[in-house]
Design brief:
Elements: H1 2-24, H2 28-31, H3 35-47, E1 57-64, E2 70-74, H4 86-98, E3 105-110, E4 113-115, E5 118-120, E6 123-127, H5 135-147, E7 152-153, E8 157-160, E9 201-207, E10 217-221, E11 228-231, E12 234-235, E13 240-245, E14 251-258, E15 262-267, H6 271-285, E16 289-290, E17 294-296, E18 304-310, H7 314-323, H8 327-342, H9 347-360, H10 382-392, H11 398-403, H12 413-416, E19 433-439, E20 442-450, E21 456-464, H13 471-484
Parallel strand pairs: 5-7, 6-8, 7-16, 8-17, 11-14, 12-14
Antiparallel strand pairs: 1-2, 1-21, 3-6, 3-18, 4-5, 9-10, 9-15, 13-14, 19-20, 20-21
Length: about 525
């Protein structure tokens, strides 16, 4: 395996030499790689000799962002499952197709006539996928309805989620992930429990009771009657709590013992019903009664607007989306892109648009089955991904998108994001802007770094099928730090030996932001 890696590296060095020869008009000296490049190749070979990668696949490509020159390549053209590196493609396609100023709208409309304080007809809640709607926002919409003088709706409350289709989950998503917020259902009407905007989920809090052995206290954020709680948890000397949702239902089961407050982010079944329940409760709070039931339907074209809300623009949403690797934002944006491009709020339409954008910007071999990377059927090649990253630098929106990427070693949660605890105190800190990616036996880091010479570089590191350890610190971080120290004309004296084994107990099978509360 080591020999195979060396052959690939020598081939890439030969290709580099040919490039240099062509660029300079030939000559033996012109064809020789610079000493710093030779040194880089040797060090990256050493990093990729990590024993736990012996049974795995690792694709690594490094290029100059300014010229496209390839400095290192291993399996550049082979496809890998990218996990959340998929978001590099879908976020860029969404920005290009929707625009940085794109906003989601949520509207309350009526189809009836007013008779004093009564609305004789139905009240419609129409969404377009806004993932930033909190319970407080539904409350504000209800307050606007009340401010018009309406106190009674004689008809139904109609939840209109038809801006998107009714396919709620990705084709290849794992069933055992369904209770958890990072695999929540997608709808044009949804709600979030927090300002991470974890659309389609609630926070379940479990607190100790009055005495040892007493029943634990369970509450939800936001409070909602959309779910039912089955509480078997008790107060104990230690916290060992399990919170899950029974498949296909909104029955949340809590078991175990609790000594201090514990929280779990749980995806709801039917986010449309969840959003409608919050709005209906808010209407009641503001003195607006609805006689009819809550149903689903399509808003008639003749309906009159009563109240509305616009989300933050996409340029701002990119920050929680990319910094925290929010899966639901990715999927909602894919469906919004499909709606914009072809009039169909579907995965098929949105992914077709995202794929076309990727192919137009350097990626001939790409398969997108979702927008987030939860699917293990997604496939990209690291060489093409670096070409894509270079192509994006010419886009008018590039700087805004680039700043939304996680930044290594920056402890601020909405700056460092999923890289905030990685590469701190190294030349890569506040330098590397890159997207992380994690599934069991899948890891990736792809993005941008500036070398010690001030040269902009792009890189993609994708690892699949490793059975133990984690490539994050031993491979991804080691390569990124090495690139930050790279000098073309000078070999780097590695003051710290390159690591070839994970730290004891290191297990990063998920994006760190997926483990709430996110402290990593």
């Amino acid at each position: 395996m080591r020999r195979h890696r060396k052959v690939i590296t020598l081939l890439s060095a030969a290709a580099l030499a040919a490039t240099l020869t062509q660029a300079t008009g030939g000559g033996a000296n012109a064809a020789d790689p610079a000493p710093g490049v030779t040194d880089l190749v040797q060090d990256l070979d050493q990093i990729l000799s990590a024993p736990f990668l012996g049974v795995a696949r690792a694709g690594v490509v490094v290029r100059s962002a300014a010229t496209g020159e390839q400095l290192y390549a291993q399996d550049a053209g082979k496809v890998f499952a990218p996990a959340s590196n998929t978001k590099l493609l879908t976020s860029a396609a969404a920005v290009d197709g929707l625009g940085l100023d794109y906003r989601f709208t949520t509207t309350v409309l009526s189809s009836g006539r007013r008779a004093g304080s009564a609305l004789a007809g139905d009240l419609y809640l129409k969404g377009t996928g806004d993932p930033t709607l909190l319970a407080a926002d539904y409350d504000a919409l209800a307050a606007k309805v009340a401010a018009t003088g309406v106190k009674l709706v004689t008809g139904k409350l109609v939840a209109d989620d038809t801006w998107f289709d009714d396919v709620r989950l990705g084709t290849d998503w794992a069933q055992d992930d369904e209770p958890y917020y990072y695999s929540a259902q997608i709808s044009a009407l949804t709600a979030s429990p927090d300002t991470d905007y974890d659309a389609g989920s609630i926070i379940v809090s479990v607190a100790p009771g009055s005495a040892q052995g007493s029943t634990a206290k369970v509450s939800t954020t936001p409070p909602t009657d959309h779910v039912t709680i089955e509480n078997h948890a008790t107060t104990g000397a230690a916290t060992d709590v399990t919170v899950t949702r029974v498949h296909g239902t909104n029955r949340i089961v809590v078991t175990g013992t609790v000594a201090s407050t514990y929280q779990e982010w749980i995806a709801v079944d039917d986010p449309t019903g969840y959003a409608a329940s919050l709005f209906r409760a808010a209407l009641a709070k503001h003195g607006v009664g609805v006689l009819g039931k809550t149903v689903r339907g399509t808003t008639p074209g003749t309906a009159a607007s009563v109240a509305g809300r616009e989300s933050m623009p996409l340029r701002e949403l990119l920050v929680p989306f990319m910094k925290l690797s929010n899966n639901m934002h990715a999927e909602i944006l894919v469906k919004a892109l499909g709606r914009k491009v072809s009039g169909q709020g579907t995965w098929d339409a949105g992914l077709a648009a995202a794929t076309a954008f990727a192919k137009a910007n350097g990626m001939a071999n790409v398969r997108l089955r979702d927008g987030s990377g939860l699917s293990r059927v997604d496939a990209v090649a690291p060489g093409e991904l670096t070409a894509f990253l270079i192509a994006l630098r010419a886009k008018p929106w590039y700087q805004t998108w680039y700043q939304a990427l996680p930044i290594a070693g920056n402890s601020d949660r909405f700056t460092g994001g999923t890289l905030r605890s990685r590469m701190a105190g190294t030349p890569a800190a506040n330098n590397v802007h890159a997207k992380t990616g994690s599934l069991t036996s899948v890891s990736g880091l792809s993005g941008y770094v500036t070398s010690a010479d001030g040269e902009p570089l792009v890189f993609s590191i994708l690892s699949n099928q490793y059975l133990s350890g984690s490539p994050k610190s031993t491979v991804e971080d080691a390569i990124a730090v090495r690139l930050a120290r790279f000098k073309r004309d000078t070999p780097v004296n590695m003051a710290v030996p390159l690591r070839t084994a994970p730290d004891a107990g290191e297990d990063l099978g998920l994006e760190c932001s997926w483990v709430k509360p996110a402290q990593c």
